[in-house]
Amino acid sequence: MASGTARATEDIASKIAAIQHDMADTINVISEIRGVIDMISDFRSSISSAVEEQYATTAEIVRVTQVSSTESHAIATAIPFDGEAAAATNTASINAASTADAFSKKLAQELTSLIGRFGGSSTAPSQSSTVGNHSALRAQKGPKRDRFGQGPSRAGRSTANFSGSRSSKR
């Protein structure tokens, strides 16, 4: 009987050891499950924060769109007044250009008259040839010299090219 009791005690001890081993494995698995649940909770929090930010951004986009719409309507309503102002400005600029043109023609006539008094040609050059004549006179005289006798090649100097053409930009 002693040997049967010893065997039974060994059997019980091995079964207890197996249960303890299984219990340790179960605790490890439960810890891993707990880690997965914590990760899922963190993801849920991150997703919730992102949804809140997206909602706030969408609300701001809606607000800005409404303000833009209101201001665009105000601008569109005000355009006829700006159109009137633009038309008045255009008329004024046309009048100014016309006055400047008339003044330049009168000045050319007076200068031609003065040149005639001093023995020069009495015919007025056309506006388009005035600049060209200036370039031709400049070419005949040679390059302009400064007070030191230096020509246009001196540092910081350049010669302007007057072609007589007007710029189309205004």
Automatic annotation (TrEMBL):
Region span, Disordered: 119-170
SUPFAM superfamilies on file: Methyl-accepting chemotaxis protein (MCP) signaling domain (SSF58104)
Chain intervals with Polar residues compositional bias: 120-133, 156-170
Protein's UniProt name: Uncharacterized protein
Lineage of source species: Bacteria, Bacillati, Actinomycetota, Acidimicrobiia, Acidimicrobiales
